What does this fold into?
Amino acid sequence: MDWARKYSSLCDAPLEAIEKGTLDEDHPAIVFSHYWNDLNGGTMPLRSAVRPKDIISILKWIMILERKIKNGLDEYFVRLQGTSLVRLTHMSGTGQFLHDFTSGACYSSRLQAIRSVIKAGKPGFGKAIPGEGGEYSIEVGAGSFPFFLGDHGIQVFMIAAPIKRELRPML
It folds into this structure.
């Protein structure tokens, strides 16, 4: 399937908060939430505790954002974007700031989600609907997971994948 021709970019869809239980147990964000909780007993872990070999099935759904403070404002630099997320967003954000490829309500909703999980020190969950109202819309569930880098650094892992199980293998 030519994903980009049928479905709108995830970057063009605002993120709304949802309860964790809205997503099925096989959803990559839920699978990762169990891993995240095990790293430090449910409190914000160190990024160095993550072992990529433990989360191989999740890596294609991941976007790793690193907080940078510039002129007193927080910006989020994309360290890594998984291959399935590249397909959902129609581009690779790796090496760019989040504000370089999202704007308006899409940017502000993601910024709110990121700031919220950093402040709480716990994961948060959301849903976006690229192409909402069109012939080819898709519900995408997401989880945001904060990590300490040390020396006051912060990274947030965003894990996003279609809510419908049958669509995930297509990506």
